[in-house]
């Protein structure tokens, strides 16, 4: 009797899970409440996988032996409640991929901020050091699709709290937790402790031969360590404590794992800003733990290219620099972006607010920002938060309008920074669409 697997959600992770499950002999049915992208329809057709879109046929779903749920579907969803009531096991795509990853080593990265950059940097260092490593998860190909179509001895996987919520056996050889700040609280009953517990699930199945890299200067992480049963070898990174696996002192980073010692100047990092020094430390400790030679680690850190939509330099026009940080979808990300600014800044802010507390940015905005350009449908909260701090706040409803207004209020030597602190769904398809429209508007100035 073949096992009947139902996949909810037909995005990158859902279609990846379907392809892997079909390959491994499961009976597979994929159901998406919205519409599938053409590329995913074609992949499902090629693999002979049955699917539906535009709604869920319950009688086909509630007969499943197991369900793989898209990370985007919340537990309070009515269909999910029926699935839970029937007691059908629900797993995430990373759990399915893990089942078939064999003896490959998994490096998994999570955190509220910095996880995409850290994941990409780890992958770059491992490749530079000669390892045949895949980049998967929320960045690159889905983990399941990678395992199905192009298996590798090492997987570097970015994982979200939503994916970790539905793991069972998933066990990384190295897990990295960049930091924990309030994000996605709408999905966790507005209870921060639930979100923290979700992030710490990354270490849940780790054993004494595995490694856990975390930021020891992050207050939330630090005070949560004792609440979880951590079996793995702990490798903290810090700018305050020299007894860490990596630390920074007087402009130099030192990485110490086992007997070996690497040091290099932070001025050689291609990634700028204090938050990126933490990301770089985490990546270097990971690489040292994977036995990458130190000269290769040094070379990789100096040759890494930053990601699109993450503090991406777009152009300098009449002395005004434009930076695309569209991936900053929460207050903390925007705080970090502002922290790394060294010139007067015109900030483009706004979008769909996930319960943002703008007071966290108050001091940083007062210190760095000369004007705020709102890019969103409802900007009331931004006006209330910064009306007394910034004298110029302008509402716009398109990327072109926002860029035009920002350019009008910027002088030679200023920066225009798109770092919205919000999701993008009110005016754009996603943060990539927002970033691309911003870049197009800048180039057309």
TrEMBL record:
Keywords: ATP-binding, Cell cycle, Cell division, Cell shape, Cell wall biogenesis/degradation, Cytoplasm, Ligase, Nucleotide-binding, Peptidoglycan synthesis. Residues 109-286 form the Mur ligase central domain. It catalyses: UDP-N-acetyl-alpha-D-muramoyl-L-alanine + D-glutamate + ATP = UDP-N-acetyl-alpha-D-muramoyl-L-alanyl-D-glutamate + ADP + phosphate + H(+). Gene3D superfamilies: Mur ligase, C-terminal domain (3.90.190.20), Mur-like, catalytic domain (3.40.1190.10), NAD(P)-binding Rossmann-like Domain (3.40.50.720). Its EC number is 6.3.2.9. It comes from Niabella ginsenosidivorans. GO terms for molecular function: ATP binding; UDP-N-acetylmuramoylalanine-D-glutamate ligase activity. The keyword Isomerase does not apply. ATP binds at residues 111-117. Residues 309-422 form the Mur ligase C-terminal domain. One of its GO terms (biological process) is cell division. Coiled coil: none annotated. Belongs to the MurCDEF family. This is UDP-N-acetylmuramoylalanine--D-glutamate ligase.
């Amino acid at each position: 009797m073949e096992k009947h697997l139902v996949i909810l959600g037909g995005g990158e992770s859902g279609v990846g899970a379907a392809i892997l499950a079909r390959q491994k002999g499961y009976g597979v049915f994929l159901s998406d409440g919205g519409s599938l992208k053409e590329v995913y329809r074609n992949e499902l057709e090629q693999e002979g996988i049955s699917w539906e879109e535009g709604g869920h046929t319950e009688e086909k779903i509630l007969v499943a032996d197991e369900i793989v749920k898209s990370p985007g579907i919340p537990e309070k969803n009515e269909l999910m409640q029926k699935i839970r009531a029937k007691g059908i096991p629900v797993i995430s795509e990373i759990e399915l991929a893990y089942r078939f990853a064999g003896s490959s080593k998994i490096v998994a990265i999570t955190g509220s901020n910095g996880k995409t950059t850290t994941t990409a940097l780890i992958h770059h260092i491992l490749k530079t050091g000669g390892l045949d490593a895949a980049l998967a998860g929320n960045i690159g190909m889905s983990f399941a699709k990678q395992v199905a179509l192009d298996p590798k001895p090492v997987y570097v996987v970015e994982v979200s709290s939503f994916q970790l919520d539905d793991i069972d056996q998933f066990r990384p050889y190295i897990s990295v937790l960049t930091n924990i700040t309030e994000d996605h609280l709408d999905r966790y009953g507005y209870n921060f402790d639930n979100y923290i517990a979700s992030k710490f699930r990354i270490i849940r199945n780790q054993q004494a031969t595995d490694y856990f890299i975390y930021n020891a200067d992050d207050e939330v992480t630090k005070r949560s360590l004792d609440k979880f049963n951590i079996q793995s070898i702990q490798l903290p990174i810090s700018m305050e404590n020299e007894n860490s696996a990596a630390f920074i002192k007087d402009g130099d980073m030192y990485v110490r794992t086992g007997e070996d010692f690497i040091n290099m100047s932070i001025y050689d990092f291609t990634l700028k800003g204090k938050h990126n020094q933490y990301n770089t430390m985490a990546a270097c400790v990971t690489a040292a733990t994977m036995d990458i030679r130190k000269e290769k680690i040094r070379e990789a850190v100096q040759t890494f290219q930053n990601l699109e939509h993450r503090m991406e330099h777009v152009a300098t026009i009449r002395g005004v620099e434009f930076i695309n940080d569209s991936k900053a979808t929460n207050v903390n990300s925007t705080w970090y972006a502002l922290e790394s600014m060294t010139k007067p800044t015109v900030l483009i802010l706004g979008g769909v607010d996930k319960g943002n507390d703008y007071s966290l940015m108050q001091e940083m905005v007062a210190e760095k920002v000369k004007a705020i350009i709102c890019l969103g449908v409802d900007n009331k909260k931004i006006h209330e938060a910064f009306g007394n701090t910034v004298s110029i706040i302008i509402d716009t409803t398109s990327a072109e309008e926002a860029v035009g207004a920002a350019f009008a209020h910027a002088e030679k030597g200023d920066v225009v920074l798109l770092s919205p602190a919000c999701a993008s769904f009110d005016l754009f398809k996603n943060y990539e669409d927002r970033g691309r429209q911003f870049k197009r508007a800048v180039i057309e100035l």
